[in-house]
Structure formats: C-alpha cells, structure tokens
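Notebook, bench 3.
Goal today: get a predicted structure for Orotidine 5'-phosphate decarboxylase from Methylacidimicrobium tartarophylax so we can plan the truncation constructs. The sequence was checked against the plasmid map this morning, with no discrepancies at the termini. Length recorded as 239 residues. Pasting the sequence as submitted so the record is complete.
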Amino acid sequence: MPFEVSSLPLADGLIVALDLFDVEKALLLARRLRQYVSWFKVGSQLFLCGGPKVVEEIRSLGAQVFLDLKFHDIPATVERAVRACVQMEVGFLTVHALGGGRMLRAASEAAAGSKTRILAVTVLTSLEEADLSEVGLSGSLSERVCALAALAGDCGIRGIVCSARELSSLRKSDIRPEVVVTPGIRLTQRKGDDQRRTVSPREAFALGATHIVIGRPVLEAEDPVNLVRNLLQEGSGLA
Ligand SMILES: O=C(O)c1cc(=O)[nH]c(=O)n1[C@@H]1O[C@H](COP(=O)(O)O)[C@@H](O)[C@H]1O
C-alpha cells in the first residue's frame, strides 16, 4: 500500500547503498549497520569489485540485497542476465523502464516464481525536466515517470524506482506499484551533488515511498552508524 504513510519498521524501509570500491570496507559497514538496516544495495561499482561473493556475504548477515545493475538491453540479453541474478537470490533487481515493454516483460518472466522482485527505474533522480529533451523525451517529468510506471505495471513489474517528488502525481493516477523505491535522499544539501530531485527521508515516506535509498550521506558520515541511528530516533518517517 505505497500511498498510505508508511508505518514500516525502519529496517524494512531503509536501503543503504554500498557504493564503494573496497569490498572489505563495504562488508564491514554492512556488519556495523546490520542492527538497524535490513537492506543493502549493491550497485555496479561494488559488484564489479566483489562479484556474486559480495552478495553472498551480505545475505549471510541475514540482510536482503538490492542488486542495482540497471539492465537496459535487448529482451533476450536482459532475460538471461535476470536469470543469472535470480540465482543469487537477491531481493530487488533493477532494469531501465526505457528498455521498453518487450524487455520489461522478458525481465518479469525471467524472475517469475523466484525470490527476486524486479524494479523498473523510471527517470533517474539525477535528471531534471530540462534534461528530458536532450534524450528525446517530451512532456513533464511527472508525465514521463507515470507513463513508465504504467508500462512497467502492464508488463508484470510491480516495483518502481523514481524520485519521491513524482509520487503525488502517481497517486492521482490509477497506477499502484506495490514497491516504490526512492533514491535522491538528502538530509542536508551536498556541495556539487549530481542528484537533482532530492527529498528528505520524512518527506519521501509521507509522499508514499515504501523504501528510500541513501548512499553518500551515510558513506561520507564521520560515524555512519550514528547517522543511521539518529535518522531513526529523530523521526524520519521511517520509525
Ligand atoms: O536505481 C537506483 O538505485 C537509483 C536510481 C535513481 O534514479 N537514482 C539513484 O541515485 N539511484 C541509486 O541510488 C543511490 C543514491 O546514492 P546517493 O546519491 O549517494 O545517496 C546510487 O547508488 C544510485 O545509483
């Protein structure tokens, strides 16, 4: 029920992105955060350094893995890539909705009956409305996100990734993804940030996110465990 303000236990709604080159450091951080966090995101950076073993190590902590490899290819290639990822028993796996309906359906079918839920990435949180025309997309950001979320749903994909900024538009439509993951989460402004559509944790949940993804604010914190603990205690909408 993504559009009811979440009362999810914190550990279920918070995803920490382990965007690091150093596999040992990533695993150490996951171990330290595990008491508060039950989801860790492994993106291309960490996966290229640590491979399937890093996924296995995180799962051995009893945590869930969001494998964020954002596949965007022809349907047959994506179907095989998804089948390979499913073997690792990851909880979430991303594909780009812009890969089109046949690709999305191939991804959905390849994960059917497994523990892996496919998430369709709509419009990256690093893009702003002015960037859309550069890649040949017309209309507003909200329109594009809603259209891509609808396409994903039509293709059997029940989870999406978008900025929480589009969730009020999505709520007005009849699109109801079961999982709504929102990156671009910021506690304070970061200098030179590549993210463009940022939202605070509290706002994201109030707007209907089921999960938030936080990377650098945690990774760059002097004490990441303390930051996560404070995030929970200070009421981010998570607890
Ligand atoms: O699919 C994602 O996770 C994703 C989609 C998106 O639109 N924007 C986005 O930032 N992400 C990921 O979410 C994480 C955000 O990290 P920080 O910007 O460091 O908090 C990164 O690992 C991104 O790859």
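The chain has one domain: 10-233. Confidence is low (pLDDT under 50) at residues 1-9.
Flagging this for group meeting.
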